[in-house]
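User: My collaborator and I are trying to settle a disagreement about how two of our proteins should look. Neither of us wants to argue from intuition anymore, so we agreed to look at predicted structures for both before our next call. Could you fold the first one, then the second, and keep them clearly separated?

Assistant: That sounds like a sensible way to settle it. I'll keep them separate. The first protein:
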Amino acid sequence: MLQHSERDYLVVRVAGPGEHVAVEPFTDVAIDVDVVFDFDDEPSAQTT
């Protein structure tokens, strides 16, 4: 999730498949990430 600032956009939340997220300014609204994005054809992200 990105937040617009005067200078640029900032990453405020990273979410993946199976997560429900709520970020400012809409903290009362949770979004099911699986509904917004189609993860069926995407490889899983690798973190280190």
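The second protein, kept apart from the first:
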Amino acid sequence: MNDQAEQSGQTEAKSGAMRQGVLIVVLLLMLGALYWDRQVARPNSFKLSDTLDQKAQERLGSSDKQMTPEEVAALLGRQPSKKREADNFETQTFSWRGGLPWRTYDIHVVFSKTSDGLAFLTHTYNAEPDPQYLPGYVPPAAPKVPPPSADDIEGGPAGPPGGGGGFEAPGGGEPTENQRPPVDDETPGEPATPGEPSTTPGEPAAPPAE
């Protein structure tokens, strides 16, 4: 009985030691991947991007032609991992593997097509080149605005063109007395009856003329 318990305890101890060993190995791999990503892949690729930019600026200030794909590959120390060809240019991508298997640091180099072959045009780091700065870029067409309809032209808020406008009672028809617009030369109150004097509230009626 005691022997079985002792053997079981030894088995559990070995199993626990193996689990700890696996965890330590995984932790070391993660630390190594993080170190590679932060201290090797990213700074080296970024430094090479700056070196490529300085080299291109030097070529612009001299009579030398711009760099060819072979010169760029030699400067970056590797061959492109991807190529994309367009009508007027070609894009080559140079990649550096990061700490994670799916993580890469990329330098996208654009070469323009000339009569002498491909020549360096521009490059970007860890981002695709903006299409509007590439040769042959055509801006998108502006959206078409439909012309105004006949109802918008003839039945707008200002009334039909050429019409007199004027005051109109809601619902159409002749406006009632309360809906008529006030007239400056009339006194508010009851309208005067032909042949009779007008009266104003609060004042006596004037005697008829003899």
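Some points you might bring to the call about the second protein. The first strand starts at residue 82 and ends at 85. The radius of gyration is 45 Å.
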